[in-house]
Amino acid sequence: MNGKKHSETGTFSPDGMRAEILNPFVHKLELDNTYDKIRTAIFTVILLPFRVIVICYLIVTAWFLACIGLYGLSEEDLRKKPMTGWRSKLRFSILSLVRLVVVAAGFHRVRVVGREHLPKSPRDAPVLVIAPHSSFFDAIAIVCLGAPSVVAKADTARLPFIGQLINYTQPVYVWRDDPNSRQNTIKEIIERATSKEDWPQVLIFPEGTCTNRSCLITFKPGGFYPGVPVQPVTIRYPNARDTVTWTWEGPGALKLLWLTLTQVHSSCEIEFLPVYYPSEDEKRDPKLYARNVRDVMAKALGVPVLDYTYDDCRLIARAKQLGIPCASAIREISELRAQLGLDRSHLEVHLASEGLKGKKKWLNKEEFAQRLGVPYDINSQRLFDIFVQNSSGLVNFADYILCAMFLSLPHAPLSHILSCTFRLYDETHTGFIKCDTFEEIAIRVLGLCREDAQNTFRQVDLDEKGYITYEEFIKFAKEKNEYAFLFVSDNSFKPKTKPKVQ
């Protein structure tokens, strides 16, 4: 379980397996006691510089050999046929150097379990499926597996030094901005998996993004389209402190790298599960195949499954960028609303269009359920708990309705949600918004800080009335390029968050 704890309550995911409503895209990591802080400070001075120097030397050396091995080969050559001759033999030297990088990083304990299940040849299981995907340190598994061809984001090819090492595995690159990328990736995987040439195994992280390992999210079906046997491989990090998990909300890459390199040692466990041979039904239905393999891996890991996807990450990123209340829990909120039937009733949209109109703004848990017209049960309680203010024990109902509007109208221009927000936070119900109320609105929908919100208010309120209206703000926003995002749909949104190593 990797130290993850789950509550006893849960729901059933669509495929029937019991699973809690979790947020797999959040990871919290702090040095919470004096001993850890002092130890980390000491090792930052003593251990970190030594490790960084050794790692850099090894990576640069491996990169230099990779450059020699790739000399004279175009991208098309790498995709057309597997390396042979001296280039293939050089692969072993590069791999040996990268294995030393793993040791230098402090991973002295990489335990490999289940090697007896390895296929006799790559052709017996041409696709390797690794989960859960939670960190750039998952590259350790790639090293331990002999550097198979990875399915990775095209951006990784441009990473300094590391890009050439990835290129040497003859990867299958995914271009997320290309509408045909999915079909091209599937086609290339099928060609390699069914080829008679001596291609390395194709390695996929079917979740497509990083999670905190509390569950397995939806497996993308791309690697299962060939209908060939796959080798499931699980990865764990059984460490006292989790310094490797890299999610959409949590420590950044540099902080994780620093904290990991200042540990005396770190552990990683890689387990080979028995080769999974698809049935005829699974060969015809890649999504069924992917779900069944996920179930097998989840059982081996002892974690639940949840039908979360990369699109959920995009939704979370957009909500956070705009400042929507409780953005990091947006997927959990969506799940709870669906279970309460709120996603079908459109009640929240109606409430948003009306505004609060003299109704109570702060609600307790019973009033919250009553206002939404749902029973007070475990689901409404959990929804309440997400929005509750710890200081008062109450929920700002306007915050909840704003979040529900964002979920109900995911592709609508933000200006439509903004108009509802003006009504929701207008406590005078006159349409005249004072500066402090506009600050509240701007923080929650425009993603502005308080100072920027105040400056914007002053620019709109040129005649210094002390208030503005929605119409005045929209007229101002249409003349400013920085507010162009208010008038476009979500279809072109690109999350401005850290990329995930695939």
UniProtKB/TrEMBL annotation:
Q: Name a GO molecular-function annotation.
A: lysophosphatidic acid acyltransferase activity
Taking every annotated instance into account, which residue ranges of this chain make up the domain EF-hand? 448-483
Q: Where are the transmembrane segments?
A: 41-71
Could you tell me which pathway this protein works in?
Phospholipid metabolism; Lipid metabolism; phospholipid metabolism
Q: Which GO terms describe its cellular component?
A: endoplasmic reticulum; membrane
GO terms in the biological process aspect are: phospholipid biosynthetic process
Where in or outside the cell is it found? Membrane
Q: Is this entry keyworded Zinc-finger? A: no
Keyword line = Acyltransferase, Lipid biosynthesis, Lipid metabolism, Membrane, Phospholipid biosynthesis, Phospholipid metabolism, Transferase, Transmembrane, Transmembrane helix
User: Has the keyword Transferase been applied to this entry?
Assistant: yes
Coarse class of the protein's main subcellular location: membrane
Q: Which domain of life is it from?
A: Eukaryota
Specify one Pfam family.
EF-hand_7
What does the similarity note say? Belongs to the 1-acyl-sn-glycerol-3-phosphate acyltransferase family.
Question: What name does UniProt use for this protein?
Answer: Lysophosphatidylcholine acyltransferase isoform X1
